């Protein structure tokens, strides 16, 4: 579905879009084909003939259909949209016009991904999520290739192959898929303490986003903005989701991985199809060059954040995704991001992780996309004009005319000309030093910010982190590795390490040399995420024959008007009959879905329906499981029977909303508020078997 406007990128893609309606089948060379079901053979039972050019072409193309998947971030999905700055607030800091021209809509293509799993792995695994944005600006493409976690595992990119090898499935048997719960990753972690801060984030709910639309994005590195006078300002980029930051719970993610491995991909796709365009706000943290050394961490160290309480995040613009790709391979798979794609006004810093990426992204596209002309692939083509002396190579798509393919030249009138007001000029930084392989002493503190993160968590976030460490380390076979990690964690917080140790059969660790510093950063906690909204939340309404059809209609209308998406589920597909023998249309049979695919469950009244559902293990499980996953549950009238059958323990329970059925509107309001709160972690739910 198209958004309310078309971008220049969208129009550029028109040139290569192909439709097949009312066309005839041809070979790749345009010859019409009379039969594509039978190969050419002498006699009906004879061998296939070599001269069957259509057969050969069809099979050859098929045989060569796959390209290497991305070495990391192989699984992803993407969408088109636009970015627009709110105002010219950044004009004193950067020449980048797309950031400083109010009302200017720059087309973007955004790809979200998991990191470790292969292309066909499940969406909801515990992992970092990629958040890569290609801005097609009038000054050329700018790629902001970030993640949903603001720090990284390592400080120097020379260690990237090591961390990725350790995290990927183990090399001898390629197990486990899309999971870090195995020996090699944790062996790396215990031996490379700089990864501790990142592992705290990965063990937190940040690694289990409810939706790409409900997660933050971060440029991670400190970049540099450069203004017209050449003055630099350090900058960290942040994306904040309009719908707030929300996560799934671990048990739920594992079940979704089986029930709907495309959960996040489908969510993004459907949100755009239904016109609920995902939106984020771009924010920046700015640090003047002269303040470079005024923090107790190094701005060039990608394992550190700048706490928002020290440098506030200044909102500068919004990103809206309003169009799904036409073709997954042509767009989502072939898009090539590269940190080195910067436009005038944005520059790098000497962050050694950033510097290494400047090499890796270009290099990887050469093997993945098969040669140096990948920038000509439609999704990668800039809107800005491309003119240079690069020539030839596999799959050259343009026909460069004239004799001059060198500079300087007179045969081409000296063109393409060098320079001009829009030309990129690198920030002039004085650099001086000996050639050495050494980390700066300012990169040496690996624990303070891990502790800051832990201290900033609410009690339920801490419980989830401890459970995640217990799960992951519980799957580690080598006891030395488990112990090593626990020792490491003790430097973060002694109680954390002791709690983890208690769950994995490791002796409690010794008190660390440096005690917990006691500092926290409230901005890090999801418990403080300000946005509560019912918009696009999915609600399962469970019915059987004899349901109160009036109630079903009324709650659907009330919740729908708040922006919720309601599905009616029943033991069978099609329709059930209500109290008055009227049909209630059913969206899905219970067995084709699961409570884990919804944000909340609601059971309307109707004695016969409630009785039938309470005898149906599938329906009872919906309620018990939603309870276990801290989701809102609503029951009207006789629907309460399901709460009893699900044996949830004595109420009232936070987030479980009951109503008599007389005031459906009032009930819907209270239930809507419970759904908007996302989860109700204060419940006593450990004893519920689901
Ligand atoms: Fe990377 C892909 C994000 C460090 C090397 N990376 C890739 C993608 C994202 C990130 C979102 C997927 C892009 C897409 O959707 O196509 N990577 C990050 C972040 C990092 C980071 C936020 C740390 C701050 N990456 C990093 C390092 C290196 C790489 C240190 C190597 C030195 N990353 C790659 C790569 C990939 C990639 C091998 C694989 C596919 C691709 O580039 O296009 O070059």
UniProtKB/TrEMBL annotation:
Domain Catalase core: 26-415
Residues at which heme binds: 70, 111, 160, 357, 361, 368
GO process terms (BP): hydrogen peroxide catabolic process; response to oxidative stress
Top enzyme category: oxidoreductase
Annotated transmembrane regions: none
Catalytic activity reported: 2 H2O2 = O2 + 2 H2O
MF term (GO), any: metal ion binding
InterPro entries: Catalase (IPR018028), Catalase_AS (IPR024708), Catalase_clade2 (IPR024712), Catalase_clade2_helical (IPR043156), Catalase_core (IPR011614), Catalase_haem_BS (IPR002226), Catalase_immune_responsive (IPR010582), Catalase_large_C (IPR041399)
Gene3D superfamilies according to UniProt: 1.20.1370.20, 3.40.50.880, Catalase core domain (2.40.180.10)
Matches recorded under PANTHER family: CATALASE (PTHR42821), CATALASE-B (PTHR42821:SF1)
Name the record gives this protein: Catalase
Biological source species: Planobispora rosea
């Amino acid at each position: 579905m198209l958004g309310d406007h078309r971008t220049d990128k969208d129009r550029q893609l028109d040139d290569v879009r192909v439709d097949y309606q009312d066309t005839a089948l041809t070979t790749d060379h345009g010859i019409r084909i009379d039969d594509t079901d039978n190969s050419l053979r002498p006699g009906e039972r004879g061998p296939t003939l070599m001269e069957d050019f259509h057969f050969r072409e069809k099979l050859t193309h098929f045989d060569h259909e796959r390209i290497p998947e991305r070495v990391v971030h192989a699984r992803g999905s993407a969408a088109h949209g636009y970015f627009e700055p709110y105002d010219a607030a950044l004009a004193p800091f950067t020449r980048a016009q797309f950031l400083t021209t109010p009302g200017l809509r720059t087309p973007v293509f955004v790809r979200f991904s998991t990191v470790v799993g292969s292309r066909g792995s499940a969406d909801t695994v515990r992992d970092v999520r990629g958040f890569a944005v290609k801005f097609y600006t009038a000054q050329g493409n700018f790629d902001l290739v970030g993640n949903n976690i603001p720090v990284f595992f390592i400080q120097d990119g020379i260690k990237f192959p090591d961390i990725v090898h350790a995290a990927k499935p183990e090399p001898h048997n390629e197990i486990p898929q899309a999971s870090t719960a195995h020996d090699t990753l944790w062996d790396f972690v215990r031996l490379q303490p700089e990864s501790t801060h990142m592992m705290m984030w990965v063990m937190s709910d940040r690694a289990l986003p409810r939706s790409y639309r409900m997660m933050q994005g971060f440029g991670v590195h400190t970049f540099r903005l450069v203004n017209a006078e050449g003055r630099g300002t350090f900058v960290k980029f942040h994306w904040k989701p309009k719908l707030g930051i929300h996560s799934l719970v671990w048990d739920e993610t594992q079940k979704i991985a089986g029930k709907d491995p495309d959960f996040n991909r489908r969510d993004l796709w459907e949100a755009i199809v239904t016109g609920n365009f995902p939106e984020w706000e771009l924010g920046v943290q700015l640090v003047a060059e002269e303040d470079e050394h005024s923090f107790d961490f190094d701005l060039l160290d990608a394992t550190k954040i700048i706490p928002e309480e020290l440098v506030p995040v200044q909102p500068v613009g919004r990103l809206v995704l309003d169009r799904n790709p036409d073709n997954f391979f042509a767009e989502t798979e072939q898009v090539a991001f590269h940190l080195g794609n910067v436009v005038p006004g944005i520059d790098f810093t000497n962050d050694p992780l950033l510097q290494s990426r400047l090499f890796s992204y270009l290099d990887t596209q050469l093997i993945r996309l098969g040669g140096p002309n990948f920038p000509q692939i439609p999704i990668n083509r800039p809107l800005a004009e491309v003119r240079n002396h690069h020539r030839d190579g596999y799959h050259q798509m343009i026909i460069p005319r004239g004799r001059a393919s060198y500079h300087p030249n007179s045969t081409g009138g000296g063109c393409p000309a060098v320079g001009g007001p829009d030309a990129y000029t690198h920030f002039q930084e004085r650099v001086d030093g000996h050639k050495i392989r050494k980390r700066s002493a300012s990169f040496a503190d690996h624990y303070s910010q891990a502790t800051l993160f832990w201290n900033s968590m609410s009690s339920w976030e801490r419980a989830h982190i401890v459970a995640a460490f217990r799960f992951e380390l519980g799957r580690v076979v080598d006891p030395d590795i488990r112990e090593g990690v626990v020792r490491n964690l003790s430097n973060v917080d002694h109680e954390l390490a002791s709690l983890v140790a208690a769950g994995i059969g490791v002796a409690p660790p010794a008190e660390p040399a440096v005690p917990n510093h006691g500092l926290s950063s409230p901005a890090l906690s999801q418990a403080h995420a300000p946005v509560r909204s019912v918009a696009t939340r999915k609600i399962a309404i469970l019915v059987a024959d004899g349901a109160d059809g009036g109630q079903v209609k009324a709650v659907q209308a009330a919740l729908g008007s708040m922006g919720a998406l309601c599905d009616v589920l029943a033991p069978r597909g099609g329709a059930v009959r209500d109290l008055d023998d009227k049909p209630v249309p059913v969206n899905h049979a219970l067995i084709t879905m699961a409570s884990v695919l919804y944000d909340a469950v609601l059971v309307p009244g109707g004695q016969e329906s409630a009785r039938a559902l309470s005898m149906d293990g599938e329906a009872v499980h919906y309620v018990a499981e939603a309870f276990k996953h801290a989701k809102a549950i609503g029951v009207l009238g006789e629907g309460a029977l399901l709460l009893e059958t699900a044996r949830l323990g004595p109420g009232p329970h936070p987030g479980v909303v009951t109503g008599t059925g007389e005031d459906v509107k009032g009930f819907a309001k209270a239930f809507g508020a419970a759904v908007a709160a996302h989860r109700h972690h204060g419940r006593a739910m450990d004893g519920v078997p689901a």
